[in-house]
Specification:
With 562 residues, the protein is of the alpha/beta class. The chain folds into three domains: 12-94 and 321-359 and 391-460 and 471-508, Rossmann fold; 122-304, Rossmann fold (3-Layer(aba) Sandwich), CATH 3.40.50.10490; 518-560, no CATH class. It is built from 22 helices and eleven strands. The protein has a six-stranded mixed beta sheet with strand order 1-2-11-10-8-9, sandwiched between helices. It has a five-stranded parallel beta sheet with strand order 4-3-5-6-7, with helices on both faces. β3 (159-163), α7 (170-178) and β4 (189-193) form a beta-alpha-beta unit. The longest helix is centred in the C-terminal third of the chain and has 27 residues, at 429-455. The radius of gyration is 25 Å and the shape is globular. The chain starts with 8 loop residues before the first helix and ends with a helix. 45% of the residues are buried. It binds 6-O-phosphono-beta-D-fructofuranose. 6-O-phosphono-beta-D-fructofuranose (F6P) binds next to loops. 6-O-phosphono-beta-D-fructofuranose binds at residues 165-168, 219-221, 224, 227, 283-284, 369, 516, 519. Catalyzes the reversible isomerization of glucose-6-phosphate to fructose-6-phosphate. It holds the Pfam family PGI. Keywords: Cytoplasm, Gluconeogenesis, Glycolysis, Isomerase.
Amino acid sequence: MDEQTVSPRASAGESQGWRERLADKAEALQSTPLAMWLDEDSPACRARAEALSWQWGPLTLDASKQRLDQETLQLLLDWAESRELHRWREALFAGEIVNPSEGRPAWHAASRWGRECPPPSGSEAAVAEAQAQHRRMAEIVACIRNGRWQGATGLPIRHLVHIGVGGSDLGPRLVSEALAEAGAAGAIGVHFVSSMDGGQLLPLMERLDPAATLLVVASKSFTTADTSFNLRTALTWLEEALATDEAEIRRHQLVGVSAHPERMAAFGIPEAHQLTFSEGVGGRFSLWSAIGVSLAVRIGMPAFEGLLEGAHAMDRHFLEAPSRENLPVLSAVIGAWNSQFLGIPSHAILPYDSRLASLPAYLQQLEMESNGKSCMRDGRPVESATCPILWGEVGPNAQHAFYQLLHQGSHTVSAELLAVAHRHGAWGGRLVARLRDQQRLTLANCLAQSQLLALGDEAIPASLQGFLAQGYRGNQPHSVWLLEALTPQALGSLLALYEHKVFVQSLLWGLNPFDQPGVELGKRLASSLYRRLGEEAVAPEETVRDIATERLVSRLTGVMAP
Ligand SMILES: O=P(O)(O)OC[C@H]1O[C@](O)(CO)[C@@H](O)[C@@H]1O
């Protein structure tokens, strides 16, 4: 095997035997009702439930409501091993080229490697660079949070507007919301703006004090149109509102985060206000890097460090635990089983905690942008389904929206329900009792929905139903995650787990999870249509014409404001 580049070819062919054996298993297990596996009085069911649930640190995974038995799980794990899981995992952490189309390593684990722990051989420079950036980031965060950062007119900063999109938005946004309680002491309001239409920016420009607002532009490439258009609008707002020279605004009220310091410098961001990270940290894996600066302002540096610690602990678990106890490996093979062998195309993410409201969107990018592919690393087409379609919503709210389809619709959907055991510890008095009641209600709903999704009404006694069976289908395979508490460490571990799950699935499917060629062409088509909608001249070879789009273009140019 090449020293620098990990070869996928050998492993791609080796899966044939496992594929056939697993396909046979799938055929046999498809028709087994989950209720048959969940009988509390049966020793076999108890043994299966025990074998299909795992506890590590603050996380518990219960996969006993998956259409899976112990023998199949072992076959799935053998399949993962047959794809050289060990070798690839070491390659990932050592900084070998695991992203061959872009000729890059993937340095996300290096960007959270613990200070007290020697880095894996080959990753020393990347770890040192990430730690140096974290130190610079901590200085900026302290300066903003303790009111020392002043705007162009000398007022201390009180609002931060983080402008980024995709991986430069979703991770920081999710963690800021999830851990907002951890940083409640911070006096800075942190806001996230991603949508290119300016719709998220407008209400902020109406409400925030421009003299006390800092813009943080987060863009790995520093070329993404969505971000640069939002940034230009926000800068114009500050310049007009403060009647101050544009260069002054950029010097005092703009922080940049990018893998391209030269582009930030060309834009007029002073070096002291630039944070950088390695080109080898993928956008959707970047929240641990300096891309997390706004989130660190929101939650405070100690909580941000706790997040990194939790992620690092999961990295070690992924590297060291045997496959049968390794949560990322187990999650990956169970997901691949559902998608590839049971043919379930759609996967719902259902957090029973509103602090995790952005988890579905975050995982959509992480999983679908990574493994939403049908071409293997070596260019051959895949022979089976790969990443499912992810979607989801806060579980209790979704119960009043789309659970109807989960319970009685015609589609099989796989799912993950996530619940947090302890919360509201910070409250006192009568409120704490009220809030704990709400938490108990939420947990009860999570468990009840999980029962119903698995069992369906036929397995539920008529005495409980109060009426005749209503056609709840049951047999919707899903896992339940329990987090002891939503601490920075637990959240860091959970998110790192999903990153490694994606990596393991990419090995199973022979994909490169670290590029996203499918999103690029759309950007180019949009760029020529943008010019045409502005009635600028566009050469025929720069644009694509089809009758439907032409009709819409002429309708739009007729009604758009000049
Ligand atoms: O951080 P950038 O370079 O602005 O990119 C934003 C996002 O755009 C994408 O490249 C997809 O268009 C994502 O992979 C990335 O997270």
